[in-house]
Design goal:
There is one protein chain. The chain is of the alpha/beta class. Among the domains are: about 120-255 and about 335-465, Up-down Bundle (Na+/H+ antiporter like fold); about 480-580 and about 625-640, HUPs (Rossmann fold); about 645-755, Rossmann fold (3-Layer(aba) Sandwich). It has 31 helices and ten strands. Strands 3-2-1-4-5-10-9-6-7-8 form a ten-stranded mixed sheet, with helices on both faces. Strand 7, helix 29 and strand 8 form a beta-alpha-beta unit. The chain is globular and about 95 Å long. Mean pLDDT is about 80; it is low at about 585-600 and about 610-620. It is a multi-pass membrane protein. One of its GO terms (molecular function) is antiporter activity. It is found in: Membrane.
């Protein structure tokens, strides 16, 4: 008998038995120590089931359980509305703002009051508020870090003039508006100065993060306009938050004279942060130079700086969020360091905690209070004042400085974006008791409207000033063979470029190759976008030099990569799109297919397509979700590369399974003409020898390039043959058949180009 095999089992059983007996002994002996008179026994009057139900209800209403249920609900609803806004080309922040209003008394609370009372009882809102404030502190820390103060110093002249004009004009109009609405809408006991200052600052704010994302999505970041507007927004952010700190101090103190000590302390705090803390953090950051990770002691230092800064400003009386913003702004200016630190904070702040703030704002927003035409007219007047002040103020100032009308209006439209920053200001005003529920609801509607109008306003401006320069670069009658390759990783771009070169090498001036990288806008920050683009195209540029090949590069930041890729492909008059085969996180998983899980965790589009019958949850697709969407929406031929260390298409194997696969011979012909490739065609179904048209096509290729194409009639394909080939060309339908039949080829095939004809 092999005792070694059973030794661990015997030890495990013996340990369990011995120590179970020991515990039983101590429990029995311990019961003898009880003083019977002082023991209170819990009596249950109902049945076992009733007791269980009662206990379950108690657990459901436990503060922690309730908070977790709220977080789950909020994140799901926020992601859903964010996705809807992304699909209609709006910033996801609008969807998250709408999600907050939907979950509040304006919709769910009105039509499902019992559910609302269960999920968001009044006693639970304190926990939600404090957790959302932590999210806001982390968010403002990120906003401060995303400001590139170097750019602000170098290019600040015109930008600061526009920025300050875009603050002072709406600020003045806001105070004027307050004069007309103070008596009707200001809460009792609130001074006119306090009310007017908060209305004015709410009119003056610009959402720097949303504006930066829009600039990236519209590829304006490299233009003079993009630089000006980003710098304007950065200057606006810094100025507006300084003004807000002063306004909070004045409101809390009751008058400017009373707030003078608070303002002096705030100035001392800013001086301390810039002259002492910032140099200290720079020295700490220099220790991190060249490293790809940040050590835990370093993280602790910077988080302590954030918390102490927020604590200091809260105690001084100018709000913790100003301290968080200031802590981010004085972080070491090394772009790589800031990126590493932002990545540590961003996911928790933006995905988990920030939606809590949107919903908490929504729970305060009672649109039902605006129950007559007079109130809606007032709301409209507030929106008009906000748009005229910010949009017109910025645009006219830019035009006065000599910027043309199109760019001036574009600056105005972008600076009018208020987004989340507006909600932060409004919530501070609401917490201080300066804003009544009615005016708070009107201002939230204004924030939504001005943010939502940015995209349509930009599109309208582009339409008004459309010129011949804006027309597509490739006219329909252009005879060039155009290849577009789209990649996500630098190495993939280099591989696809070599493949495109094999298809077009000898075409000289009759070809055009464009290498495109579409990057998720959420993964980039305004100050690092140039470096990010440079890194993405580094391999492509090096390979193009090696091949002596002229390549056009195209970079785009996007919130919807699939739709942007297909839109560019369809509108660009391209002849072939080359992409890499990707992989889904849950590929092949029934749960993944049923719920629509992907690397984005939950893909609403896949769920929608399943409902519409466009995808089949029980069907093992030969492609990942991303590739399926590209194939479904693209109107040009698509080549999907399965890369197995592809170098060059010198030896190419083409299996022909059906008559519909014969279009592959056109690609074989291109490879022979441009790369002198050796082509082996496998007549899998024996249909070539019976088809005169195809035989003539092969004969025509042989006449032009003798000994470059071979018809292979062997029924069995050996592993050695497959491994000797550089590339396999196959149709998308035949590739699906290989996957479905679990063909033995799959483990031995070379790099494979799956070509789908629309």
């Amino acid at each position: 008998m092999n005792w070694g095999k059973y030794k661990s089992i015997i030890f495990y059983i013996s340990t369990i038995v011995v120590f179970s007996c020991l515990m039983y002994y101590f429990i029995i002996e311990g019961q003898t120590l009880e003083v019977k008179e002082s023991i209170v026994l819990k009596t249950n009057t109902g049945s076992t089931w009733d007791n269980f139900v009662e206990s379950f209800k108690t657990n459901l209403h436990h503060p922690l359980a309730l908070l977790l249920a709220q977080i789950v609900t909020i994140i799901l609803v926020a992601r859903l509305f964010g996705w809807i806004c992304m699909k209609i080309k709006q910033p996801t922040v609008i969807g998250e703002m709408v999600a907050g209003i939907v979950l509040g008394p304006s919709l769910v609370g009105m039509y499902f009051p019992e559910f609302s009372a269960f999920l968001f009882p009044k006693e639970s809102l304190g926990n939600l508020q404090f957790l959302s404030q932590i999210g806001l502190i982390l968010f403002m820390y990120i906003v401060g870090m995303e400001l590139d103060l170097g750019v602000l110093r170098k290019k600040a002249h015109d930008a600061v003039v526009i920025s300050h004009a875009s603050i002072i004009i709406p600020f003045a109009l806001g105070i004027g508006l307050s004069y007309y609405i103070y008596q009707e809408f200001a809460p009792d006991g609130i001074q006119f100065t306090s009310f007017a200052l908060f209305i004015a600052i709410a009119m003056s704010i610009t959402a720097f993060p949303v504006l930066a994302r829009i600039v990236q999505e519209r590829n304006l970041q490299k233009t003079k306009l993009g630089t000006i507007v980003i710098t304007c927004a950065a200057a606006d952010d810094i100025t507006a938050w300084c003004i807000l700190a002063a306004v909070i101090a004045i409101v809390k103190a009751g008058s400017f004279a009373s707030s003078i000590y608070v303002i002096i302390m705030a100035i001392a705090y800013v001086f301390l942060m810039i002259k002492i803390v910032k140099p200290f953090l720079k020295r700490v950051g220099d220790l991190q130079a060249g490293k790809s990770t940040i050590s835990k002691p370093m993280v602790a230092i910077f988080f302590l700086t954030l918390i102490l800064s927020s604590y200091a400003t809260e105690v001084i009386g100018i709000h913790a969020l100003f301290g968080a913003f200031m802590a981010g702004a004085i972080m070491p200016e090394n772009a790589k360091f800031r990126t590493l630190f932002i990545d540590k904070v961003e996911d928790v702040a933006l995905v988990l905690l920030l939606p809590l703030f949107f919903v908490f704002t929504g729970l305060r927003t009672q649109i039902g209070l605006l129950n007559d035409s007079h109130l809606w007219i007032t709301a409209g007047f507030i929106i008009l004042t906000a748009v005229v002040g910010k949009f017109a103020g910025s645009a006219l100032t830019a035009r006065f400085l000599g910027i043309n009308w199109k760019e001036s209006l574009t600056i105005g439209a972008l600076m009018n974006t208020r987004g989340l920053m507006e909600l932060i200001v409004l919530n501070i005003g609401y917490d201080l008791g300066v804003l009544s529920p009615e005016i708070f609801a009107m201002m939230v509607i204004m924030a939504l409207f001005t943010t939502f109008m940015t995209g349509p306003a930009l599109d309208f401006i582009n339409f008004l000033f459309k010129s011949k320069k804006d027309e597509p670069e490739h006219p329909e009658n252009d005879s060039k063979y155009r290849v577009l390759l789209s990649f996500d990783k630098p190495e993939a771009g280099s591989t696809l470029l070599r493949l495109a070169h094999d298809f077009t090498n000898k075409m000289n001036g009759n070809k055009s190759i464009t290498a495109m990288n579409i990057a998720p806008v959420d993964e980039m920050h305004a100050y690092e976008i140039d470096e990010y683009e440079s890194q993405q195209f580094k391999n492509v540029i090096e390979t193009s030099h090696d091949l002596k090949l002229q390549v056009t590069t195209l970079f785009k930041a996007s919130t919807d990569i699939e739709n942007d890729l297909t839109s560019i492909s369809n509108k660009g008059n391209y002849d072939l799109l080359l992409i890499m085969l990707g992989k889904s996180m849950y590929e092949g998983s029934l749960l993944g297919r049923l719920l629509g899980f992907t690397t984005k965790i939950i893909n609403p589009e896949k769920l929608l397509n399943t409902v519409k019958g466009k995808s089949y949850i029980f069907n093992n697709s030969p492609f990942d979700d991303f590739t399926l969407q590209i194939l479904d929406k693209t109107h040009i031929p698509v080549g999907v590369l399965v890369d197995k260390d592809f170098k060059s298409a010198d030896k190419v194997f083409i299996p022909i399974f059906k008559l519909s696969d014969f279009y592959l011979l056109e690609y074989a012909k291109r490879l022979i003409n441009n790369n002198n490739s050796q082509i082996i065609i496998l007549d899998v179904a024996g249909q070539i020898r019976n088809n005169i048209e195809v035989k003539e096509l092969i004969r025509g290729i042989e006449q032009v390039a003798p000994n470059h194409i071979t018809l292979y009639n062997e029924k069995k394909i050996e592993k050695e043959f497959l491994s000797s080939q550089d590339l396999m060309l196959i149709s998308s339908k035949s590739w699906k058949n290989l996957i479905d039949s679990k063909s033995l080829w799959l483990s031995d095939i070379p790099s494979t180009l799956i070509i789908s004809n629309p």
